[in-house]
Recover the amino acids of this structure.
């Protein structure tokens, strides 16, 4: 046995020591190079934990726990004076589905569907506007791109309520748009353009357009124009150029845009409340009413949970469609 | 067949460029980056509009016709394949857009894929293809439309060196087989040499020289063309007129086959044109003796410098000229050799 001290030391550091943490301990102590830094699994793990702990705690306390509470609340009973009574019930869900005190009534289901449609139309309108807008910006020279992007971002600095009231002023009875509409015979003389669908969509689109335009811009900016030119060179017409050359390239940005537009548009209540009046009650308004006016928290919670569930289902369908495309998208990283 | 007269507004990218391409030839526009060659190609493709000038295709003025209505197709530098479409759909794109029937499209696509040896890869997406395969798809996608002219923008630039020779051979035989006119743009003089029947050398938006590949490569018109085609500075030699057809150079007096138009200027001698021999004669017209330096084997033959004795130029480095011989020649560094300038191979530069 001509083992030197050096050999023994090497054996200690390089072979497993089963009496401690087994093979894992050995692997975690092993020195490795990670992104140019000499370190070990152990210290990387510690660092990852330290860095991810604060956001994890934050999300757990402020998002996960409230969500669980909200879902739980949906199955409790409202007391006589709006207090929560801890009696489990499916009454809220039944009511939501339309089985109320006075027989079946599709009211809530309709509101849910209408919210879906309104959010969907808003998203489609935003897409229709965002494409020309982002192409316009992306084809400007460097400096003026920044200018245009700032123009898009500026409305973010104004409160949604303030913006909604601004639309009330613009669409008011004595302003040019309403007068023009009256002159054309579309509304009564002296009438205003709100409340109604037009006002709601104007408010919605002006609110959500930046959410669509910014992610889409990120994609449009990186567009390979040679592919568009190839489509033209190969006799492509406008529609083909869009669907075959532009859409596939901008899909990642569009996907993010659709999510960040559609999801909040489903839940919005301020804009529809101010500009839509009672005629266009949406799920957002309904939820807000349950919590703030009707003092029916369990029913409000049931509505919220349903909305959340619907949104998650939409996202899941969306993600599956994205997964089918091996070109990949940002969503695949979720 | 193609007649282009062009001048450009902003920064004069192209300055009154005019050239014509014969049907069924491979024509190359050769030039350094930024010389306007790609712009010229894009104008022909219909992807850019000239400020002035006309493009004629078989006597039709197509200057203002959009790309989608020209019987001209392009192989883009990045290939620009549609990333979400498989090989078949990429190739079928142009035919579909032109409204061909499905069975016609199928037939044509499979035919061209067979010609390009891509059969069996038709279901692959571009990201599943190698660089060479992508290029074939780009070629197939353009050629399936049976264009009168095929434009190729730096077709080899994205390929590995070992693939280039192979692709060059294939391109040549493909062109012979289809008879399509190829117009290629490149900055690589080897590529131009290997592929083209005729070529135009461009610099700073102007055509410097225009002719058959053989003519341009053997007798470059001026220093720019000579250097661009690979001549080293050593082989571009100052010459002053002596009388008759004779000129004086630092190496020796030389006699041309016929007298150039100038009295003081530069001449070019290609390294492989110098006749080198181990037997040393006495210095005289078109002949000098020198010493071999920097000898190395370049893969085919021997490259070396010949320094003239006593060997000191004004710049301090020995006055020398580059020569190339077959590898059979038994020479070594430091050996004295005799060098002969054949009068027919001396190229006077403007």
């Amino acid at each position: 046995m001509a083992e030197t001290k050096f050999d023994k030391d090497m054996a200690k550091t390089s072979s497993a020591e089963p009496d401690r943490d087994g093979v894992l301990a050995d692997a975690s102590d092993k020195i490795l190079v990670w992104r140019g830094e000499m370190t070990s699994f152990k210290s990387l793990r510690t660092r990852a934990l330290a860095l991810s702990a604060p956001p994890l705690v934050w999300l757990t306390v402020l998002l996960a726990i409230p969500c669980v509470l909200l879902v739980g609340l949906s199955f409790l009973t409202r007391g006589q004076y709006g207090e929560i009574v801890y009696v489990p019930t499916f009454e809220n869900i039944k009511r939501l589905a339309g089985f109320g005190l006075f027989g079946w009534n599709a009211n809530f289901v309709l509101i849910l569907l209408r919210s879906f449609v309104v959010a969907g139309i808003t998203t489609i309108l935003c897409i229709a506007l965002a494409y020309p807008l982002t192409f316009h910006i992306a084809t400007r020279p460097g400096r003026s791109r920044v200018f245009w992007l700032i123009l898009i971002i500026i409305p973010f600095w104004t409160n949604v309520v303030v913006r909604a009231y601004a639309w009330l002023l613009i669409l008011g009875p004595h302003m040019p748009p309403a007068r023009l509409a009256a002159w054309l015979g579309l509304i009564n003389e002296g009438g205003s353009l709100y409340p109604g669908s037009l006002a709601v969509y104007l408010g919605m689109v002006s609110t959500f357009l930046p959410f669509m335009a910014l992610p889409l811009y990120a994609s449009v900016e990186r567009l390979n124009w040679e592919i568009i030119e190839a489509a033209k060179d190969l006799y492509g017409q406008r529609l083909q150029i869009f669907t075959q050359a532009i859409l596939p390239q901008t899909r990642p940005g569009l996907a993010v845009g659709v999510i960040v537009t559609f999801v909040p548009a489903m839940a919005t209540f301020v804009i529809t409340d101010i500009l839509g009046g009672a005629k266009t009650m949406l799920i957002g308004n309904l939820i807000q009413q349950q919590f703030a006016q009707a003092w029916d928290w369990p029913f409000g919670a049931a509505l919220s949970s349903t909305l959340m569930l619907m949104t998650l289902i939409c996202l899941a369908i969306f993600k599956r469609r994205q997964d089918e495309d091996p070109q990949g998208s940002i969503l695949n990283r979720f | 067949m193609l007649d282009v007269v062009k001048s450009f507004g902003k920064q004069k990218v192209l300055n009154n460029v005019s050239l014509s391409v014969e049907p069924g030839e491979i024509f190359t526009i050769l030039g350094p980056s930024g010389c306007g060659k790609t712009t010229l190609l894009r104008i022909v493709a219909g992807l850019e509009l000239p400020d002035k000038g006309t493009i004629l295709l078989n006597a039709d003025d197509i200057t203002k016709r959009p790309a989608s209505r020209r019987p001209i197709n392009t192989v883009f530098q990045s290939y620009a394949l549609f990333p979400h479409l498989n090989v078949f759909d990429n190739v079928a794109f142009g035919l579909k857009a032109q409204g061909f029937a499905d069975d016609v499209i199928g037939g044509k696509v499979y035919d061209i894929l067979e010609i390009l040896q891509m059969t069996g890869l038709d279901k692959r997406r571009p990201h599943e293809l190698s660089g060479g395969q992508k290029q074939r798809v780009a070629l197939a996608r353009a050629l399936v439309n049976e264009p009168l002219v095929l434009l190729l923008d730096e077709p080899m630039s994205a390929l590995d060196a070992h693939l280039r020779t192979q692709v060059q051979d294939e391109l040549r035989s493909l062109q012979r087989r289809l008879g399509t006119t190829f117009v290629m743009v490149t900055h690589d003089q080897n590529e131009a040499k290997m592929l083209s029947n005729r070529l135009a050398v461009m610099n700073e938006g102007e055509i410097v020289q225009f002719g058959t590949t053989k003519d341009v490569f053997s007798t470059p018109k001026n220093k720019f063309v000579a250097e661009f085609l690979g001549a080293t500075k050593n082989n571009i030699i100052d010459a002053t007129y002596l009388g008759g057809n004779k000129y004086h150079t630092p190496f020796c007096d030389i006699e041309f086959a016929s007298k150039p138009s100038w009295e003081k200027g530069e001449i070019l001698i290609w390294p492989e044109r110098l006749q080198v021999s181990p037997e040393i004669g006495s210095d005289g017209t078109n002949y000098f003796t020198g010493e071999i330096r920097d000898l190395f084997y370049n893969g085919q033959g021997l490259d070396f410098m010949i320094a003239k004795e006593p060997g000191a130029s004004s710049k301090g480095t020995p006055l020398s000229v580059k020569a190339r011989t077959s590898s059979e020649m038994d020479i070594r560094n430091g050996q004295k050799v005799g060098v002969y300038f054949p009068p027919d191979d001396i190229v006077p530069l403007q």
Summary: The interface with chain B takes residues 224, 226-227, 229-237, 240, 244-245, 248-249, 325-327 of chain A (CB under 8 Å). The mean pLDDT of chain A is 82. The longest helix of chain A spans residues 41-73.
